[in-house]
Amino acid sequence: MVGPNSSAVFWPHKNLLTTWLAQVVPWDLGTGDQGEMASLMCGVVLHSFLQNPVVTVAKQCPSTCTRSPSSSPLLCSHPKRRINYARMSQSSSSQQKIQEQPVIEQQRITIENNYGEKLAGVFHEVGSTEIIILCHGFRSSKETSIIVNLAGALTEAGISVFRFDFSGNGESEGSFEYGNYSKEADDLHAVVLYFSGVKRVIGGILGHSKGGDVVLLYASKYHDVPTVVNVSGRYNMEKGIEERLGEDFIQRIKEHGFIDVKGKEGNVQYCVTEESLMERLATDMHAACLSIEKNCRVLTVHGSADEIIPVEDAHEFAKIIPNHKLHIVEGADHCYTKHQAELSEVVVDFIKESLQLNRNTLH
Fold this sequence. Notes:
Pfam families: Hydrolase_4. This protein is α/β, with parallel strands linked by helices.
């Protein structure tokens, strides 16, 4: 039995604690020794909470969310910050061991691009000087599962992250365009300038699918980031168009000036103009990759079962990017539906290694 001497930090206030627990805990704690043990265990939770308060989040909550019994705001606590009761010794001389995880604070930030459009983003702040910027893919957003999951994995590793919507996508202002690769690279530049202006170090940029092409184009144009992660980007920009626009798309767009792309139910999902189509076809990923500086470390990750962009594109990137690492995720589709864990592990390990190399170079 646990006695008063072994739990002095809580025991002097047992009656007050029991009264409080009776109001907030929806089950009977019991009486006698069992009740005292239950009170003590809940006291440990209360003490941990007071020492490490959770972060209040207005809208976004990437981890386990619960509401308090009263009308308090939504509370977000990271799953890995929970106490591991299995490791708590039942002897009176044992000490409680709690492994600290980074406190993750989410902040919604709006950044204006060169066209006066406001880009909406979410900043995952864990206190690191370096930040990683995440870029979504075609007709997607910062809220897509692959981007949110990567943000979670990086923040768990103690790395701050910013994920945002390109102009014309998600919550950002502007009109959606089919091509827009160059403009999206400029959107990314606006984000980089913003965080550089508030004394943060851009540790790297990561993009999925179309976003993978955007981060490579960015590195070839601006030469101001040390690390690039290309997740399932397309190498041959002439491929994949017919699958979306149908046969004879060139002839039809020349005739009408645009093509309405419809969904399965016949509703128009987006419009492809001749200008935006030509912009995509003129995007030369081969030339762009040759322009990436040799001191910029590049990781390409691709699924072997990608149904949107063939894995052969990843091997083409590996042939021409000077400082390049390739990782093929066996069996993974374009969205890594069943391979999120491997994707996160590969990305986090590469970025952590790159950040350390950058620090060593600076010193």
